[in-house]
TrEMBL record:
Protein name: Xre family transcriptional regulator
Domain HTH cro/C1-type: 28-82
Alphabetized InterPro entries for the sequence: Cro/C1-type_HTH, Lambda_DNA-bd_dom_sf, Tscrpt_reg_HTH_MJ1545_prd
Gene3D superfamilies: lambda repressor-like DNA-binding domains
């Protein structure tokens, strides 16, 4: 893999995480499932039996050395490229926006705007407060704790990509107070905000009021994160 493009950057990130992990097998499994690649498909790509991949992931086989890790990573990326390269492109978008993938899960613009109501339905989201728009042109999905603790207000604004006409999804939310207060220091705000991991009954008492004051649609969802990301990354 030559050059310093997204594929090379992603390969180095995955290899580094596996090599330095206290549990390399679990880290390999995390990346394999993130790529939506089965043990069987990865084994076939590397011309080994499925039990080899299973043994590495379970810790039954000695932790893979650098050479083996390199082959495993190359296998994941090759399969992704053969499928159209969606995960590599996803990482490239996040990288080009200047973020780490543990802060921003996905950031993209749509070819055409889509109805916000449809997006909410597909994400099993309940609208708490209506905003001033009924369509969005993109989305950004972030880890709420990592974003709030690590990003400056300027970096936070870059989460909007090309336009604020998007839905900003905060994951790992418990009450919603921290992300909504953080949004108050960023001007302007996105047109829609989804708080993920929370039921409406557990929402911070002042959340709806802040959304109304700042004019954005606010919704909550407790849908499985992997399912939500799988749907969102399919939008173009």
């Amino acid at each position: 893999m030559s050059g310093r493009g997204p594929k090379r950057e992603l390969a180095e990130k995955i290899a580094g995480e596996i090599t330095l992990s206290d549990d390399p097998g679990a880290t390999l499994r995390k990346w394999r499932t993130d790529f939506d690649i089965s043990q069987t498909d990865l084994a076939a790509e590397l011309d080994v039996s499925s039990s080899v991949i299973s043994d590495y992931e379970s810790g039954r086989r000695e932790s893979p050395g650098i050479g083996v890790v390199g082959r495993l990573v190359e296998g994941l990326l090759t399969i992704d490229e053969r499928r159209g390269g969606e995960r590599i492109r996803q990482y490239g978008r996040v990288l080009s926006a200047g973020f780490e993938s543990d802060v921003v899960y996905d950031l993209r613009e749509y070819a055409t705007s889509i109805p916000l109501a449809r997006l909410y339905d597909d994400l099993e989201a309940t609208e708490v407060t209506a905003g001033s728009t009924d369509r969005v042109s993109g989305h950004t999905v972030i880890d709420s704790i990592e974003a709030i603790t690590r990003l400056s207000s300027e970096e936070f604004f870059r989460l909007y990509g090309q336009s604020t006409n998007r839905v900003l999804v905060f994951t790992g939310v418990t009450r919603g107070e921290s992300p909504l207060v953080a949004l108050r220091v960023v001007n302007p705000t996105p047109n829609a905000v989804i708080l993920h991991g929370i039921e409406e009954a557990d929402l911070w008492d002042h959340a709806a009021d802040l959304a109304r004051i700042d004019g954005y649609s606010l919704a909550v969802t407790n849908a499985p994160l992997d399912d939500m990301l799988e749907y969102l990354v399919s939008l173009e």
